[in-house]
What we know:
With about 250 residues, the protein is an alpha+beta fold. The chain is about 20% helix and about 35% strand.
Amino acid sequence: MKLFVFILLLLPGLYLPAFATGEVQSSRSVGKLKLDQDTDLSQLIQQLEPLSRARPAESENYAASTVTQQFAGVANRHDQLFEIYDANVQTISDFDGDGYHHAINVYFDVDVSYDSATVYAKLYLSREGGPWSQYFTTDLFSIHIDDVSDAYEVQTELLEGYDPGYYSVLVEVYSLDHAYMVTSEVLDYQYLGRDLMIEARNWDEPYEEFYYEEDHSHGGGSMAMLLIFFLIIQVVIAARGALALSPCKNKR
């Protein structure tokens, strides 16, 4: 009885690490301007080393609430206003076919009201309303008013620490001419009109299909024996029939 109680007390601890608050999240991401046709993100991402981050301990409404001043002494340009004009998320790579993907491609087009600006973006993921976890920071890139050719995309492969679930993506944009974040957008079910079903690569294992080939060697031998036996029976029956039809000689 004591052993049974000990096992019951031990079982929760066996499953705790998989859902622990401080679980490490591992991913690898690469980004480029959307119009750059010379860069293949799918091939480039395979050459990157995984980036690991500790999962945040407490939930936040927005990651922007904890953002501090990025550049000391930078004066805001009050003649510029920013917005994310268009953004989308494409889920890719579902090995086991369960609808949860372990890779995503985030696309966003940042516009500025006047002149040009040099910006960069931070990307975050949140699972079902949980804490925002940053997984990538883009390189610097330039935008010009409402030019669509300066749209940016980031492809990410989630390796570990992302349990299967419905996720939201947060895009925060920062400008070199402004001290704080200039615009942001949450890409979730309401924005996209569809759920983002995501899981880490270690959850996305393809199902193994086993094919069993029947061994016909013994079956073939058995059929041959049955056929021979059947032929013998037919011969015996035919022989008996022939004897029965043959005329009998009268004995003198």
